[in-house]
Amino acid sequence: MKTETTSPEAASSAGRVLKDETASPDAKRAAASALSQAPDHRAPALTKVRLAKDHQHAGVPYKAGEEIEVNEADEKWLRKNQVI
Q1: 1 & 36 share domain
Q2: Same domain, 5 and 22
Q3: Are residue 5 and residue 37 in the same domain, yes or no?
Q4: Which residue range(s) make up the domain with 7?
Q5: pLDDT the model gives residue 57
Q6: What is the pLDDT averaged over residues 76-84?
Q7: What pLDDT shows up at residue 40?
Q8: Is 73 helix (H, G, I), strand (E, B) or coil?
């Protein structure tokens, strides 16, 4: 089963409807429904890790012992390759 999502433009419009004091209850219910289907565009959570050896991350060189913040996928790669 395919789940439909709301475009960012439609989600923004729905947000305006919810704040509009003159919008009808039906319009507000439809807007709330649209927002509940909007994709989540938040940045992925970051985890602080300590490097076990020198490493270049995102083009920046780091020394062993330094801490960097990485997303979950990068953390898995760093562990797999014994960088942390």
Answers
A1: yes
A2: yes
A3: yes
A4: 1-41
A5: 86
A6: 96
A7: 66
A8: helix
Write the pLDDT tens digit of every residue in 1-53.
444 445 666 666 766 776 788 878 888 777 777 767 766 667 778 999 999 99
Q: Are residues 34 and 52 in the same domain?
A: no
Beta-strand runs (E) in the chain: 47-50, 55-57, 60-62, 67-70
- Coil, helix or strand at residue 24: coil
User: Which of 8, 68, 75, 15 minimizes the C-alpha distance to 38?
Assistant: 8
Whether residues 30 and 10 fall in one domain: yes
What span, in angstroms and rounded, lies between the C-alpha atoms of 84 and 30? 48
Quote the pTM value. 0.51
Pairwise CA distance, residues 24 & 81, whole Å:
57
